[in-house]
Amino acid sequence: MTLRQAQGNRSDFGKVAVLMGGHSAEREVSLMSGGGVLKALQSRGVDAHAFDPAQRDLSELRADGFQRCFIALHGRFGEDGTVQGALELLGIPYTGSGVMASAISIDKVMTKRVWLAEGLPTPKYQLLRRGGYTREQVLQVPDELGLPVIVKPAREGSSIGVAKVQGYSEMTAAVEAASLLDADVLCEQFIAGDEVTCPVLGSGADAIALPVIRIVAPEGNYDYNNKYFTDDTKYLVPCGLPAGEEEAIQGLVLKAYRVLGCRGWGRLDVMIDAQTRKPYLLEINTSPGMTSHSLVPMSARAAGLSYEDLCLQLLASAALDQEKPRP
């Protein structure tokens, strides 16, 4: 795969639905992503239309003659394999990963289990299930993982519900807050060092890693507000890492992407230990943001690919896990 591959005739795409909004906690961000994608596709002559699954039944996609879907949904009911499964049944090709890869990748614990099974580095963790832990077990987590501890819902994105716990007295409140958003709460070892992210485009052996972005957030707090609604966070691309580190991280994220069976595109978040310079995989996003603050378009621009061309390339990659047999 190349960044400047031919996109084909715009008419080949047919009528395109940009799926945005949806039911997840990331609805607001999804509407921003979808709006940007819709404008970009229309500016390049694509017959693209907004489609909000929270307001319309997915069965209307077939009834209205849509031939392809660009998934700009984030979080549950959009990034977790559910919409992908529905589109498989409808026989409408869609952007991004398929059913299994999407379902695994949105679950941070399942993702870690796959990576660890493949020998890929990821921070140590403990899983707490809602209703299945005692206060004493919660307070034992820092004994195993050290302090600070990162506490987060296992299946949310955009840093929703994430807390950096500095002391034992904060553990219970952080776990309870995360458990309101998800039955599974991930407690993760904190890696102090550089925070970076690296997008991937393509599938299998043809997948390529885009330039690494180094993230410098106010006081190291890359939360929901600093991701989307302030200009205080700095994004460095070129990333300015020591020689050889960027290439090593690109190689690592490609392995991580491929072992999960992802396709189309994704973005992987990595922490680099300040003392050892060892990179640790945090998580993968299989339907990354496409807002004005989003990182995949930023990295793509650094590689010479405009926002509009990125959207076209992603749309051209739309596919099904299983092609429907001809009658």
UniProtKB/TrEMBL annotation:
- Please identify the protein, giving its name as recorded: D-alanine--D-alanine ligase
Task of the protein? Cell wall formation.
Write out the catalysed reaction.
Answer: 2 D-alanine + ATP = D-alanyl-D-alanine + ADP + phosphate + H(+)
Q: Which family does it belong to?
A: Belongs to the D-alanine--D-alanine ligase family.
What is its cofactor?
Answer: Mn(2+); Mg(2+)
Q: Which Pfam families match?
A: Dala_Dala_lig_C, Dala_Dala_lig_N
Q: What is its EC number?
A: 6.3.2.4
Q: Which GO terms describe its molecular function?
A: D-alanine-D-alanine ligase activity
